[in-house]
Amino acid sequence: MWLATVPVKPARCCDRPKAVLLVRGATLNKETRERITAKVDEFLVSSNARAVLLVDRTGQPVAEAGEMRGFSVAKLAALAVADFAASEQISTLLSNPFSSIFHQGLGRSLYLAGVEDELVLIVLFDQRVNAGMMRIKVKAAVEELAALCKAVIVELEAKGEGDDIEINWGMDELDFDWMAKDLSDILGS
Predict the structure, then answer these.
(1) Which of 3, 19, 129, 144 could tie 170 with a disulfide, CB 3.0–4.6 Å?
(2) Degrees (nearest 5) of the Cα angle 120, 159, 12?
(3) Residues 161-174: tens digit of each pLDDT
(4) Single pTM value for the model
């Protein structure tokens, strides 16, 4: 695994925690954050999705784009990464790795895909987009985001950071008290 987490104090913006990108205790530069956000924005437009979130494995947003009204982003992210983690355990039991998960709702559907070992791409879309087409677009976006993450590591190593790079894409502590509603509320089913 090329990413490792380090303990950090939560960074808060309004009521939603934001992911903190750290390398040896220093945050990654604004340009790197903008490159990641630009990829997420680009995917939102090209896929015709309603909302796109890139989150770490604790559910903390790294980048987000699209319509975030009508549901709690924090709840969606936390439930999605828990769903993804549970599916990974099932795939381990079956000796058959899953790279993505699809949930179809009446009004909206959800597609989850792992990006490397540390991030999850969450895509919320409606009936305007065919699920098969979304699968193709998500696969391409995951490849692009994975390449970008690897490029960040290569750049840091080139700057003399060495082999012991530690990146925390999010926070190590989560508060699950606010998870009162389930995924069906988010999907509208």
Answers:
(1) 19
(2) 40
(3) 545 555 555 444 44
(4) 0.73
Could you tell me the CA-to-CA distances from 82 to 22, 105, 142 in Å, in that order?
A: 23, 18, 19
Per DSSP, 126 falls in state: E
Q: Which residue has the higher pLDDT, 55 or 12?
A: 55
- 14 in a domain, yes or no? no
Whole-angstrom Cα distance, residue 67 to residue 108? 12
Q: Which of 127, 101, 133, 113 is nearest to 188 (CA)?
A: 127
Residue 138: which CATH number? 3.30.450.30
Does 97 map to a domain? yes
Q: How far apart are CA 146 and CA 142, in angstroms?
A: 6
**Residue in the structure block whose two tokens are 């039991």:** 93
